[in-house]
Design goal:
The complex is a heterodimer. Chain A is α/β, with parallel strands linked by helices. Chain A folds into two domains: 6-118 and 233-284, D-Maltodextrin-Binding Protein, domain 2; 127-229, D-Maltodextrin-Binding Protein, domain 2, CATH 3.40.190.10. Helices cover 41% and strands 19% of the residues of chain A. Chain A has helices spanning 6-9, 20-32, 55-70, 82-90, 101-106, 156-168, 173-176, 186-195, 205-214, 216-219, 246-256, 262-271, 285-297, and strands spanning 43-47, 74-78, 96-98, 111-118, 124-125, 127-132, 147-150, 179-182, 200-204, 222-227, 231-232, 236-239, 275-277. In chain A, the strands form three sheets. Chain A has a six-stranded mixed sheet with strand order 2-1-3-12-4-13, with helices on both faces. Chain A has a five-stranded mixed sheet with strand order 8-7-9-6-10. Chain A is globular, with a radius of gyration of 19 Å. By secondary structure, chain B is α+β, with helices and mostly antiparallel strands. Chain B is 58% helix and 16% strand. Chain B is built from eleven helices and twelve strands. Chain B has helices at residues 13-68, 72-82, 163-214, 222-226, 230-293, 297-325, 336-352, 371-388, 419-426, 440-453, 479-484, and strands at residues 93-98, 103-106, 131-134, 139-148, 151-161, 333-335, 356-361, 366-370, 394-402, 405-411, 456-461, 467-474. Chain B has a five-stranded antiparallel sheet with strand order 2-1-5-4-3. The relative contact order of chain B is 0.06.
Chain lengths: 298, 485
């Protein structure tokens, strides 16, 4: 997962700087080639919109940094949903993508880890249950019968965690809540709860914390009712077959070296991240156990 | 304007005309204001309807795919961004419902929660109306069905803040009232000024007429005539012609009155000469007797007595004549004796015409009435009665105090007054009776003297068979004037 211009690309399937050539090239590549050995083609990096009104600036900076640091042209591809990103990654349309821990665990065999972001010194984050600021709630039991906003069906923090929490109580969202809907963006969950459209929402703790700095007037209307335990931060992943390629090596190097370079530091400061680490797939065991729990419950 | 100010028919023109103009302007401005405001309202509502249609069409085309999928977030995202309107409409309140009437999303979800049903949603609309305006709440309500492939999948409800439209109407109303009031005031002031200017000559005319009551009629000066409009110039010229004629007639009348006075004086003089002449024969006889038998005491005493009585008679006649014609230079109060003098004055005429004079002077002492004028009135009436009475008839003279008035009655057995003479004496006619009848001018003079004294004359039929003239003069009415004189 990363970073997206919710205003700019908010809802529609839209490529970042799409060009016919790139589309054709991508489509052809997916059929002809299975790996990342596409000499002369731009490196395609996928993401979904995450937050922030400054996404445009962030994306420009990220693309600029990666292009320089990797020494190849990098193309950022924004999709509305994790599903689109994951499927394009699996099908080879994307060389790498910032995805969520949930699809990474779900497609563990097809995907390989490139790097994991470090936030507040750790490669992990939490999921929050949000309610409006004037409401008293400390547990998911208090949210029964709500209209509940999820972020994305393929999001760990914005869906899976809450679903697993309900599964532990032998319940399902559609039964527990009066109504649920997906906003396809963590920031949108915050907006929905703040506006009163939803009475509660499942949101990425990292996004909410960053928003308290960048848009305090928005988060002030909400409060955190419950925090999950710490889980692996949404990683940068690539398809398993591509993992050993030189381009992925360069990407990993560029990500890990980010704090050492001026543009890289400005990207990190926009993301409020400390940097990237190689990461251990075991980080995502907590998510994997939730996937198991949900699957077992049905 | 003073006492009759409640009756608009009596209001002065200078006020009435501007008031009419102002009233007319008021009516015009009410009609105009109504017309302008209703046109403004129509225009505003037409524009609002057009705006609303365009707005809702845009909103609907964006919403339909998401309503089909019941995508609460996307519906909310669209209407939240679409709720801010340009052009003073402020923030619209938008609610999108599905085909079951449940709220999918609203621009203010706290007011209209998701999945809620608002029973009163359609209460603003009559029949199939898509837009209604509620001026009291300053809001306009609009709705638009969401139709996809001929199937109703939901509905959009919007209410707009239209207070700026109402404010605009208020501004227009205030501007109209202020403008119309200013125009009405201006026109009224102008009307007042112009009417005053137009009626100016009438004021001149009325002033000159007022002056003529207390004295001779004064002509309007030529510079004032030259400065007026054509219509008034003609009026002024005629007025001046009339003034000249009236003044001339007044002068003639005065002259005639003098002549009449002289004529009656002449008659009196001849009567007086007769009166003096009568004892004269006796006196000469007495003187003769004295010459011849003056040595006899009895004869001398008788003769001297006779002479004394004769001279006394002559002295009385001379005195009363002097009293009568000592005239206006010496106004004094009326004394009972003044009237008795008259009896002496008319005595010869009575004798000459063999009339019987019944003299009832019931006055006692002095009265605050101008003696000369009253004596002239009494004398004229007496002479008139004597003149019309047939030989051997009776004339009654009565003077007495009746309440606050001095009453004077003269009865005769004549043929009565002619209508002209009656009109002259009773004050119904301003013209002297035709000259030549002898009494006409005398009566007219009597009338004028009576007017001066504040009295009036009434003519009735006397118990004697002829006419009776009753004159009443308020006692003391002229005292003030007299004291000043």
């Amino acid at each position: 997962m990363v970073v997206g211009a919710s205003r700019l690309t908010g809802s529609i399937d839209q490529r970042w700087k799409p060009s016919r050539r790139a589309l054709l090239a991508g489509a052809t590549a997916s059929v002809v080639l299975s790996g990342g050995a596409r000499a002369g083609q731009p490196f395609r990096f996928g993401s979904t919109p995450v937050f922030l009104t400054s996404d445009l600036q962030l994306l420009e900076a990220l693309q600029h940094y990666l292009t320089i640091a990797m020494g190849v042209e990098v193309q950022l591809v924004l999709k509305r949903t994790y599903q689109e990103i994951t499927s394009q990654l699996l099908s080879g349309l994307l060389d790498a993508a910032w995805i969520c821990g949930f699809p990474f665990v779900a497609y563990r065999r097809e995907l390989d880890l490139v790097a994991v972001p470090i936030w507040r010194g750790k490669p992990s984050y939490q999921s929050y249950l949000l309610v409006s600021a004037d409401r008293e709630a400390a547990d998911i039991a208090d949210l029964r019968g709500d209209i509940h906003a999820f972020s994305d069906p393929d999001s760990n923090s914005g869906y899976l965690v809450t679903r697993a929490l309900l599964a532990e109580r032998a319940s399902k969202p559609q039964d527990f809540f009066k109504r649920t809907f997906f906003t396809y963006g963590h920031r949108n969950v915050v907006r929905a709860v703040a506006a009163g459209l939803a009475q509660s929402g499942s949101v990425d703790g990292y996004v909410w914390e960053v928003l308290t700095e960048t848009e305090p007037e928005l988060t002030r209307q909400t409060k955190v009712a419950w925090r999950s335990d710490w889980m692996g931060f949404p990683p940068i992943a690539t398809s398993a077959g591509n993992a050993a390629s030189e381009a992925i090596g360069r990407l990993r190097r560029a990500l890990i070296d980010m704090p050492t370079e001026q543009t890289g530091r400005s990207v990190l400061s926009l993301l409020r991240l400390d940097g990237f680490a190689t990461g251990d797939p075991a980080l995502f065991d907590g998510i994997a156990s939730r996937v198991e729990l949900v699957r077992a419950f049905g | 304007m003073r006492r009759a100010s409640l009756d608009p028919r009596r209001w002065p023109l200078a006020f009435k005309a501007p008031a009419l103009v102002a009233a007319f302007m008021l009516i015009v401005s009410i009609v105009m204001t109504n017309a302008v405001l209703s046109r403004l309202r129509e225009t505003q509502e037409r524009q609002l309807a057009a705006m609303s249609t365009i707005y809702l069409n845009g909103l609907a085309s964006a919403l339909i795919p998401h309503v089909l999928r019941e995508d609460i977030w996307e519906v909310f995202d669209i209407i939240e961004r679409g709720a801010s309107l340009e052009g003073g409409f402020g923030r619209a309140r938008i609610v999108v419902v599905d085909n079951k009437g449940e709220t999918l999303a609203a621009s203010d979800p706290r007011q209209v929660p998701v999945l809620s049903r608002q029973s009163g949603r359609d209460r603003h609309f009559q029949g199939d109306a898509l837009l209604t305006v509620d001026s009291e709440k300053a809001r306009a309500f609009a709705r638009r069905p969401l139709v996809y492939q001929d199937r109703g999948i939901g509905e959009i409800y919007v209410d707009y803040d239209i207070s700026h439209l109402l404010r605009e109407r208020g501004d227009v109303l205030r501007t109209l009232i202020a403008t119309n009031a200013a125009i009405a005031l201006l026109l009224a002031a102008f009307g007042y000024w112009i009417i005053r200017r137009m009626l100016g000559p009438l004021g001149t005319l009325s002033r000159h007429l007022d002056l003529s009551v207390s004295g001779p009629v004064q002509s309007i000066p030529s510079n004032e005539i030259a400065g007026s409009t054509r219509e008034f110039r003609r009026l002024f010229v005629r007025f001046n012609a009339m003034a000249d004629a009236v003044n001339e007639r007044e002068a003639i009348a005065k002259e005639l009155a003098n002549e009449e006075r002289l004529a009656s004086l002449g008659r009196l003089a001849s009567g007086m000469a007769h009166e003096i002449n009568n004892p004269l024969g006796g006196l000469f006889n007495a003187i003769d007797t004295l010459k011849r038998h003056g040595e006899k005491p009895s004869v001398r005493a008788t003769s001297l007595n006779l002479i004394e009585r004769g001279l006394k008679g002559i002295r009385d006649v001379v005195r009363s004549t002097l009293a009568a014609y000592r005239a206006d230079r010496d106004p004094r109060h009326l004394a009972s004796a003044d009237l008795d003098d008259l009896r002496l004055l008319v005595g010869p005429e009575i004798t000459r015409r063999a009339l019987a004079l019944d003299w009832q002077n019931l006055l006692d002492g002095e009265l605050p009435i101008e003696a000369t004028a009253f004596r002239q009135v009494a004398l004229n009436l007496l002479l008139n009665a004597i003149q019309v009475s047939p030989s051997g008839a009776a004339v009654i003279f009565i003077s007495a105090i009746e309440g606050e008035c001095l009453l004077l009655e003269v009865h005769d057995q004549g043929p009565g007054f002619s209508p002209e003479a009656r009109a002259v004496l009773a004050g119904e006619s301003n013209r002297p009776a035709p000259i030549g009848e002898g009494t006409g001018l005398g009566l007219w003079v009597t009338r004028r003297l009576l007017q001066d004294m504040g009295g009036h004359a009434v003519i009735a039929t006397s118990p004697l068979g002829g006419a009776v003239v009753s004159v009443r003069i308020p006692v003391g009415a002229r005292e003030e004037l007299r004291d000043v004189a």
